[in-house]
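Example record

One chain of 159 residues, shown exactly as stored in the release files.
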Amino acid sequence: MSWATRILKVGRIVQASPAAPARTVPSPTGTRASLQIRHVDAGSCNGCELELSGAFSSVYDAEQFGARLVASPRHADALVVTGVVTHNMRGPLIDTLAATPEPKLVIAMGDCACDGGMFRNGYGVAGAVGDFVPVDVELRGCPPTPDQIVETLRKVTGR
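Predicted structure tokens for this chain:
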């Protein structure tokens, strides 16, 4: 039996997703529709970025729960900020938040974004994300796993 015949015979095998969690913050769009997310790397080690890309891969598929990455802050409902805020990224972070239309959310992802983590006292570090922009949701971990990222996004979308 060829592999193609085997695939057609077995069909698609997927796990059912768990029940929708309770919301932790009000929906920025006011609906249970999708959440458009702009990612901002404010000065991370790229560990969080790897896990974020994993959360949106075909294995974890965060898009099935209404979260979608967009390329422009003008199209976004939320910002996911990773890493400590460096002196060079303080202005661009504030500008990106200003370019995001109201209502909006800011999600600080990773220990560095939440409180500075291990890089808090570095010479190029200005501070944590909350020191410069208001943070609505904190996602802790160094780095957080794709499961944690998807669970947090589900709590935001309510799906």
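Notes: Helices lie at 3-10, 47-55, 90-99, 111-115, 146-157.
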